[in-house]
Amino acid sequence: MSMWAGQFDAAPNELVAEMGSSIHYDKRLYKHDILGSKAHARMLARQHIIPESDATAIVDGLDQVQREIEQGHFEWKPILEDVHMNIEKRLTDIIGAPGARLHSGRSRNDQVATDLRLYLRDEVDFIRQRIVNVQTSLVTLAKDHTSTILPGFTHLQHAQPIVLAHYLLAYSEMFERDLGRIKDWKARMNYLPLGSGALAGTTLPLDREFVAKELGFAGVCTNSLDAVSDRDFAIELVSLCSIVMMHLSRLSEDIIFWMSQETAWVQLGNEFCTGSSLMPQKKNPDMCELTRGKTARVFGDLTTVLTIMKGIPLAYNRDMQEDKEPIFDAIDTVKLVLAVYAPMIATMRVDKERMYQAASDPALMATDLAEWLVEQGVPFRDAHHRVRDLVTYSKTNSISLDRLTLDQIKISVPEANEECLNLWKPEQSVAKRNIVGGTAPEQAIFQIRTKWGHLLEQ
């Protein structure tokens, strides 16, 4: 019979027991469940709710339970449903009556809310460090490519020349915002639910602030209904994971394109690629492709948790048991992909010459001519139209822009002079974009030194 059997005079139907059990996935919370229980026991003794000797026995017994779990000797019993009841039952088997006192002043509702916050708080630190590792790989590569020129794209069409460092640092900026979201998330979620009971608190004189301090929380949840019934902190973390994966997926897409024969701008180390079971010549960027697929998976986890929570009335409902698997899956997935990406980027080899050739089409410098006209006092819309007409003339007559004579340029751009004949070099184009946020090599070097230098010092 389950530990909650009470008025029930029959064991659950086998299928009911199977459907209600969560032990196969929530047992990963065991460390945090034990940590919270030890703090709770010490508080109960401080408040004279249980004897000091019982609290000591509970703490020692929980230490033994943890050793059994970590040494592989612990028997997880599905009939006990979850990690909390399994640990409490084993504790009581070990120390007897004092173990039965541990649950004083708490419910599984506030217990699981506490365990989950403790677990996620630890897991997000792994995510944070792995994001920093990816940033370090990006910045290290960028340092070697502040003058490597390639086409920048809009609408997947060649647009303007950029330097590769500028591109790589763009993703480092995105990941920096992800780190900011983690920091904000930790500040919002770091409050203790324990002591909220099933939904209404308890009549026992708990010292919740003591437990919060013991467990490293900034304070306590101040509304017991909210504390046990919401999972917005978990939803926010899965949303954060989704944004990280979105950034990784976009980076993956570019790498896949850059490795194609159509561009052949980069190569990844063989250890991060796979071959074909049929075609011996293939070298596939499968880790990038899997990242795109796993991004969809994490998005699905977010949708699942939101859908679970959207129609639940206050307070706790059993539906919320189903939040663990998508939450755990999202965390496991983002941690794995981030772990792959840092060393994978470090193996990237760049074909500078092919990139430069692709960026050397003078049409990519058309905007430079329009902006030159603006400097001469021509309104930008007029300048844009004149250069557009010049590009049309170039295509119609099959003459590259950099091979037009000054007289030919003047047909569309009457303000042109000899200086306009020298606007068609990509290195000149990127160098002139020497403003904050621009793609000039000088800006990339400055950003690496001042904003990202700490990553290179690690």
UniProtKB/TrEMBL annotation:
This protein's name: Argininosuccinate lyase
GO CC list: cytosol
SUPFAM superfamilies: L-aspartase-like (SSF48557)
Annotated PANTHER family: ARGININOSUCCINATE LYASE (PTHR43814:SF1)
Domain called Fumarate lyase N-terminal: residue spans: 6-300
NCBIfam families recorded: argH
Gene Ontology BP term (one): L-arginine biosynthetic process via ornithine
Pfam families xref list: ASL_C2, Lyase_1
HAMAP family in UniProt: Arg_succ_lyase
Family: Belongs to the lyase 1 family. Argininosuccinate lyase subfamily.
Domain Argininosuccinate lyase C-terminal: 364-431
